[in-house]
């Protein structure tokens, strides 16, 4: 029997620093209603979808930073989203900043959750690849302080939901082939990814004109090489003076983009995904059990990175 998931990429336009959680949740709910009216089973929202992308600023006051974090999920403002999901019978992926206390220690993560049609959280993921830098770098036009404000998560789990095997990643994770492969080895059939990607990369401005190309390149490769759907969803547009790419899209296991957003505002793009399309890739070209050679890949986990350039000079630590 065919297994279809009707999925919506729920792209957000910019969120101002002054915008309240209540206002943002109202935007998310409006998109959820639209996705449901269009017959969707699941809507995917961006990374850090409840606030502006605050790691662009250096804050000294921890209390000011913690204003951007959720202490419970659902919390007072987000409960309405869960209630609507349950009422409509639609699931969602939501990215947010998570503050939690583990064994008496405060921990902060860049997190996403997958919520099923009953409003239950069925999977939680904490961003592994935190980009940017940890120290104040005022020379930049804007900063990227994820390494200061979050700690990395532990890994990439998957779960059975929506009739298939679902996995999650967050923004910078999508640039790393390991992200998809670890989930591919667990049989993932749909990888959900929210992102906030500035067009301008201060340490490498020569890449700026390629930012949309790279966005699609990495997600299309991840989909094809692992025989999985990928749903990539942006917070787009000019947010607090910083331009972010859109380019939200749904990618088939063939690597082809089958639906995409065309604006940089609040917009949904929808695709009817036949999860059984994954099988022809997983059973042939990317039949891991038949073709992979783990003996040859030891360095992937043994070595973290290259410390010396081809000419013998140290790799400069640019973030
Ligand atoms: N949010 C996030 O992870 N953004 C990064 C910007 C890095 S600049 C190349 C991203 O990978 O899109």
From TrEMBL:
Claim: Amino-acid biosynthesis is one of the keywords in the record: no
Residue ranges constituting the CN hydrolase domain according to the UniProt record: 5-277
Key words, A-Z: Hydrolase
InterPro entries in the record: Aliph_Amidase/BUP, C-N_Hydrolase, C-N_Hydrolase_sf
GO molecular function, one term: hydrolase activity
Pfam families the record matches: CN_hydrolase
Stored SUPFAM superfamilies: Carbon-nitrogen hydrolase
Hydrolase among keywords: yes
Protein's name according to its UniProt entry: N-carbamoyl-D-amino-acid hydrolase
Organism of origin: Bradyrhizobium zhanjiangense
